[in-house]
């Protein structure tokens, strides 16, 4: 699990120390068993508890209500978007998924709703426990700037109910809904939003594996149709004469058809890669799905690294590659030097 304090990832030594503390506590009589995620979450919380922090941001995984991180009573809770994912655990009912996600809300605490397309069950759950809801489009909003140089502006509420506005905010290269939601959550947590500081943060923010460019490669961990639609909208066309490749590897519990359909209009050629493990999906299965939907599969590889090696022999300087479909796909590629085409001599 990734633990970052003041912009620096926790060292191996610190994580090992944290896991040892968790293990010592686990073995106290009566001893208990912990899942992988429970142990990882407790280690992360130990690392944060032993740092001098003004604010801690915790990502709640999977369903929300039953996730290990939800042992913490958050001062501010956020739900961003809800889409069909982890269907074998959460089912295909968005209303029920919304109720599970809303399980991170707490009575009388702010609940920030970061999408205007959430199922009604999210707001209903907040109201049911008397959480104070702040919804995008009502309590806070964003809009395009009025002049060139003012890409967008944000309007929201402070914890005391007073109105706040920030103008001239740069595009962070990430969903503006999410950026606006983060600003609203910080305001409710008591953080003073200074305009110049916010502008600098939005100009410099990066998320590893989210529309991350490495030379000709764009790496994005999106693994559901909603994320794929966002990538398709933001993916620039390759230079004239270039091909838009996609290297894709997905787990077997993801909606592969939905992801492929979202990306299909943007992709010229596909390289399918196998992800190993109990939840892995074969490259051949992905290839069959892409072909049945009208896409052109160039090659099937046994791993993301093997797929990248095959592409190394094909890339032209004008080509671009989108690597996507899973955290596992992107993580393997980020751990290696990605091949780049050699510019042609003039």
In short:
By secondary structure, the protein is α/β, with parallel strands linked by helices. It is 34% helix and 17% strand.
Folded structure, characterized:
By secondary structure, the chain is α/β, with parallel strands linked by helices. The chain has a domain at 212-334: Mur ligase, C-terminal domain (Protein-Tyrosine Phosphatase, Chain A), CATH 3.90.190. The chain is 34% helix and 17% strand. The protein has helices at residues 12-26, 36-49, 87-90, 94-101, 120-128, 176-188, 195-204, 225-234, 256-263, 283-292, 304-312, 327-334; strands at residues 4-5, 8-9, 77-79, 110-113, 132-135, 141-144, 152-157, 163-169, 212-214, 217-219, 244-248, 269-273, 297-301, 320-324. It has a six-stranded mixed sheet with strand order 9-10-14-11-12-13, with helices on both faces. A three-stranded parallel sheet has the order 3-4-5, with helices on both faces. A three-stranded antiparallel sheet has the order 6-7-8, with helices on one face. Helix 5 (120-128) links the parallel strand 4 and strand 5. Helix 1 (12-26) packs across helix 2 (36-49), helix 4 packs parallel to helix 5 (120-128) and helix 8 (225-234) runs parallel beside helix 9. The termini are far apart.
């Amino acid at each position: 699990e990734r633990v970052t304090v003041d912009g620096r990832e926790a060292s191996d030594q610190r994580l090992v120390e944290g896991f040892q503390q968790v293990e010592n506590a686990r073995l106290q009589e009566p001893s208990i068993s912990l899942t992988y995620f429970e142990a990882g979450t407790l280690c992360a919380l130990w690392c944060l508890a032993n740092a001098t922090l003004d604010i801690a941001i915790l990502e709640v995984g999977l369903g929300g209500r039953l996730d290990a991180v939800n042992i913490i009573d958050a001062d501010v809770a956020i739900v961003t978007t809800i889409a069909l994912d982890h269907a074998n655990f959460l089912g295909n009912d968005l209303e029920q998924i919304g109720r599970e996600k809303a399980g991170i809300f707490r009575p009388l605490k702010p609940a920030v709703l970061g999408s205007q397309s959430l199922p009604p069950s999210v707001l209903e759950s907040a109201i049911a426990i008397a959480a104070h809801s702040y919804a995008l489009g009502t309590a806070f909003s964003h809009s395009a700037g009025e002049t060139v140089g003012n890409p967008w502006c944000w309007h929201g509420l402070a914890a005391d109910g007073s109105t706040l506005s920030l103008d001239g905010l740069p595009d962070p290269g990430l969903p503006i809904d999410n950026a606006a939601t983060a600003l609203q959550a910080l305001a409710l947590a008591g953080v003073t939003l200074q305009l110049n500081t916010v502008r600098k943060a939005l100009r410099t923010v990066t998320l590893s594996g989210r529309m991350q460019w490495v030379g000709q490669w764009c790496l994005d961990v999106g693994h559901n149709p909603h994320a794929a639609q966002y990538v398709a909208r933001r993916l620039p066309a390759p230079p004239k004469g270039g091909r838009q490749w996609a290297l894709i590897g997905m787990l077997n519990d993801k909606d592969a058809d939905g992801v492929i359909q979202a990306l299909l209009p943007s992709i010229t050629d596909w390289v399918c890669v196998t992800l190993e493990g109990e939840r892995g999906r074969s490259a051949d299965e992905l290839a069959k799905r892409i072909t049945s939907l009208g896409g052109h599969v160039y090659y099937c590889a046994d791993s993301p690294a093997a797929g990248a090696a095959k592409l190394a022999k094909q890339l032209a300087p004008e080509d671009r590659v989108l690597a996507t479909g899973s955290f596992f796909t992107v993580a393997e590629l980020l751990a290696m030097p990605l091949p780049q085409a050699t510019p042609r001599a003039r």
